[in-house]
Known about the structure:
With 337 residues, chain A is α/β, with parallel strands linked by helices. Chain A is 43% helix and 15% strand.
Amino acid sequence: xxxxxxxxxxxxxxxxxxxxxxxxxxxxxxxxxxxxxxxxxxxxxxxxxxxxxxxxxxxxxxxxxxxxxxxxxxxxxxxxxxxxxxxxxxxxxxxxxxxxxxxxxxxxxxxxxxxxxxxxxxxxxxxxxxxxxxxxxxxxxxxxxxxxxxxxxxxxxxxxxxxxxxxxxxxxxxxxxxxxxxxxxxxxxxxxxxxxxxxxxxxxxxxxxxxxxxxxxxxxxxxxxxxxxxxxxxxxxxxxxxxxxxxxxxxxxxxxxxxxxxxxxxxxxxxxxxxxxxxxxxxxxxxxxxxxxxxxxxxxxxxxxxxxxxxxxxxxxxxxxxxxxxxxxxxxxxxxx
Amino acid sequence: xxxxxxxxxxxxxxxxxxxxxxxxxxxxxxxxxxxxxxxxxxxxxxxxxxxxxxxxxxxxxxxxxxxxxxxxxxxxxxxxxxxxxxxxxxxxxxxxxxxxxxxxxxxxxxxxxxxxxxxxxxxxxxxxxxxxxxxxxxxxxxxxxxxxxxxxxxxxxxxxxxxxxxxxxxxxxxxxxxxxxxxxxxxxxxxxxxxxxxxxxxxxxxxxxxxxxxxxxxxxxxxxxxxxxxxxxxxxxxxxxxxxxxxxxxxxxxxxxxxxxxxxxxxxxxxxxxxxxxxxxxxxxxxxxxxxxxxxxxxxxxxxxxxxxxxxxxxxxxxxxxxxxxxxxxxxxxxxx
DNA sequence: TTGAAAGCGCTAACAA
DNA sequence: TTGTTAGCGCTTTCAA
Lengths: 337, 337
């Protein structure tokens, strides 16, 4: 454990420089010398020390990935894409699981300061835009997934939240629904904000009135989604459709409907977002939106690494389209035409 | 970006040695000097360079985590525990997602050789025991989750597979089932092998005959589980209960039953393993076994790090108990007593 | 209580 | 085509 370049040089009867050149196949090294060195490397089982390399090159070849919670399926999908892209460019990734804790999230960024990582990919960060920009201004490199940061050297990747949300509402409208509820996912989630925007646009395009009382927050989780639906239902018993900003909350709606004796989709049509594995297995199967998470992670990371050494970035914002899967939970026609 | 210890020393009017001593609060440093240095550190926004530290200390403070597939829920649970334990001891973790590819899995171990990581936590590795031992003999440190390796300095952590499997079979037997199928998860999975062992012991203890034709392999996935059940059913139409070595395969059984017109649990009782989120949402809710994955990851990693600098290891094998959740899928009494 | 200096393993500027 | 040497930023031995 621990053959050094020195020993290789010694055994091969050349200088460490030559060995280094062979390793990085830089410059001209006589073929014969190269073969000899390679042979010794083989023989001694030499592996270049990554730390020494990092120190010398001032590059750790390591990316940090910051996620709110690695157990949430969509985040593990992003990680998969990020790791693949990193791997393909010889980068390693350090996982930073913030455990849904904003303070922890902030703390992890210290890995930039002590140069443990060259850069960070922030997956749905909860820290503020301002904080992120502050780091960017100090020269630290970050890419962001799930939010567009207005900063020239921060690559970002999001999905077409407004678009597909609009489509969902128009779909509901076409089926004859007029009182469509929206369950949001928190005030600070850009995804949720954009989906609300799509909801509003969809209503407008369908010439349906916007009714603020049909909107409640479900904080992206099942329990709060359940409660949100009950609140809405108590305010307006005419609702016949619900667009939940994610599947978890949609499942909460399922539970609420069960308790209230409402049938899905006969009484209430439901559509969620994320296309959880569960969607196909609940009864009735839940309509949802599949987002290309792994691909998003891959693309933005690939682009990011390519531009890591450049000050100015040409391509910066990636917007990926999502796919709506209509299943039985939204399969009821209301209109009598 | 990049204040060094030199600069701190310069500004504080002391030597780098003194600054280093303050940083690692080693030896005696006069209180006044210490305060002065700390103040300058604060002022300059100094952060010790982790790479230089690693090179000097010959310790990267980084653990590799090797998983078959980060998108599989249970693996992300392990990661969460491992990362937490690592974090609490100031270690970082590098994620290595083998994408269910044994070659990739092996390749990742190179991170040990080039000293990118100090050690590896192998989560349900598919590489052979021999290969792992070979690395161990070369002095590389690894901990293993999901398999017990017969090697003195490799900490391992598993669950009580045999025990709970035995219990499940005895539970079935008590309900009056006599023809109980087992769907395994591949020949090479220790989990599956142990669950089969528990199945056999359970039959014996219940004085039920062992019928080899009631065992088929479902490779831990839904589709193969579906096929396995059909094969078994075609061989023996008397089966009234199925123990699937994981939930995915149990879901496959659900699908097969639906196609075959068999009702769960009335005609076929089903129990799976892993306690997937889905279990509660399928119809009927699937009985399953919850394993303390996050805790296992945490415990073994904590122990591992504590013993990382020791040649001989006192505590080495951790066996954690699991919990069986009986739900409606296995809720039918067969016997006529 | 403090500091000078060596050295961890590597790369690259410069020289030959 | 190859080698000498300085130095990346840190810790630690030894001496003062």
